[in-house]
Design goal:
Length: 446
């Protein structure tokens, strides 16, 4: 079980205070936007600062002390990532990138030259959908009304089409839903396809094991980033099969990917260097590895158990509020700590603003870059008028939801305060005047 006070002491952000409407003094920040951005603990901050002060140099280029030190630290990052996700390093490798979007785009690039469509779930963040659309045919497999994956539809489309890859999230950034990625991998492999997992939301919230290549349920490609794993320094990775990565043309056909260039030919390195052009974000990668070691020290089983307590508490409280609907599957055990919700009659922009200004509760609102999935959860059956207005260049208030998302330093008391404030908003009992927020003028009229 987590020692929550000790954990909170590791994060300087938890000591932030802000002015709130109607309060005599600043209120402590309640940060519930971990699904968008996480904050580094002291150990990660100190690692980043120490590396820049004492060890920074370019890697794989020099034969002086600092270059050798930096190269060793940079190469150790791969070992930390492989250990954290349970990956084999002999037949696979890790490509370091700038963010999850770039890592997933690299995965789509690697698979682009292979025949057949990519099968993409309808719950995906755009970063695990649009890159595949840009490189070839894409088919989508469905979701049920409760936001869970339709495995029957997946299996049918695998059987009916010669699919080259299945792209699926490890955990939904909207509902927090946890697909069974190993079940999906087995289905994909049974039909000769690979699996590409967007692990951005999963990485810091539950134990991960991509499994041995000899396991039918192993994960072929897995992407994650420090941005959502307590190391927001612009570093990410794509784990993938070495043979496929070596066969693909270089992702960035210049810079550090080449061994030798003549007037009419270029000889490229093998992976991972093959796809890492130019000077990488060395310090960011070192900090990312420090964050993974921090999470390992805490224990991912303990992280998962703590988060489950928070989700259960939130969902129990919210379901007692008539007029408030939590989106997605009703079981907390089937989701990480993302609890997207809608409040009847209150625009999501207004609700998020009130939570911020009247309780210093930081949440995300909007469509969360997964529009088809959110539309299904919001039960929007016809978006033709919305599309017409967008095509016409009009400013449109897009449909959306409010999403509190929990992390390692959130507490049960913070969850209770969030639920209380949702009740205040439901009752139209907020204190401030928010006429500049979309829909605010009409909302407070009962």
């Amino acid at each position: 079980m987590l020692d929550i006070n000790r954990i909170r002491d590791q994060f300087p952000i938890t000591r932030q205070r802000f002015e709130v409407t109607g309060a005599p003094e600043p209120r402590p920040l309640i940060y519930m936007d971990h699904g968008a951005s996480t904050h580094p603990p002291r150990a990660v901050l100190e690692t980043y600062k120490d590396f820049l002060e004492k060890s920074y140099a370019n890697v794989h280029r020099g034969h002086h002390y600092l270059s050798e030190m930096a190269t060793n630290r940079f190469e150790d990052v791969t070992e930390d990532i492989l250990r954290f996700i349970g990956g084999e390093g002999e037949r696979n490798t890790v490509i370091l990138c700038g963010n999850t979007t770039q890592a997933l785009d690299l995965g789509a690039h690697v698979m682009a030259g292979r025949p057949g469509p990519t099968l993409v779930s309808l719950m995906e963040h755009h970063s695990n959908d649009l890159p595949h659309r840009a490189r070839g045919p894409v088919l989508h497999f469905g979701v049920h009304d409760d936001g869970t994956l339709d495995y029957d539809d997946l299996e049918t489309k695998l059987r009916e089409h010669e699919v080259k890859a299945v792209a699926v999230t490890g955990a939904s950034n909207v509902s927090g839903y946890l697909p069974d990625i190993h079940r999906i991998a087995r289905l994909a492999h049974d039909h000769g396809a690979r699996i590409i997992v967007d692990g951005a939301q999963l990485l810091a919230h539950a134990p991960i094991d991509v499994r041995s290549d000899d396991d039918p349920g192993h994960i072929d490609f897995f992407a994650g980033a420090g941005h959502k794993a307590y190391a927001p320094f612009g570093s990410s990775f794509l784990f993938g099969p070495r043979d496929l990565l070596d066969e693909a043309p270089p992702y960035i056909p210049s810079g550090g990917t080449v061994v030798y260039v003549t007037e009419d030919e270029a000889y490229y390195k093998r992976s991972p260097d093959r796809h890492q052009g130019g000077t990488p974000n060395i310090a960011g990668a070192v900090a990312f590895a420090a964050a993974l070691r921090f999470l390992e020290h805490v224990g991912m089983d303990e992280v998962r158990s703590h988060e489950l307590v928070l989700v259960e508490r939130a969902m129990d409280g919210l379901k007692k509020l008539e007029g408030v609907r939590v989106l997605g599957h009703p079981s907390p055990a089937k989701r990480i700590g993302a609890v997207a919700l809608e409040i009847e009659g209150v625009p999501h922009e207004l609700a998020a603003t009130i939570l911020n200004r009247e309780a210093a509760i930081a949440v995300r609102n909007g469509c969360f870059c997964a529009h088809p999935y959110l539309h299904r959860l919001l039960r929007l059956e016809n978006t033709a008028e919305l599309r017409q207005r967008l095509v016409a260049g009009e400013d449109v208030d897009l449909p959306g939801a409010v999403r509190p998302s929990f992390g390692i330093f959130n507490t049960e008391d913070e969850v209770d305060e969030m639920v209380r404030m949702i009740g205040v908003i439901r009752d139209r009992a907020w204190k401030g005047d928010y006429g500049e927020i979309a829909g605010a003028a009409a909302c407070k009229e009962l």
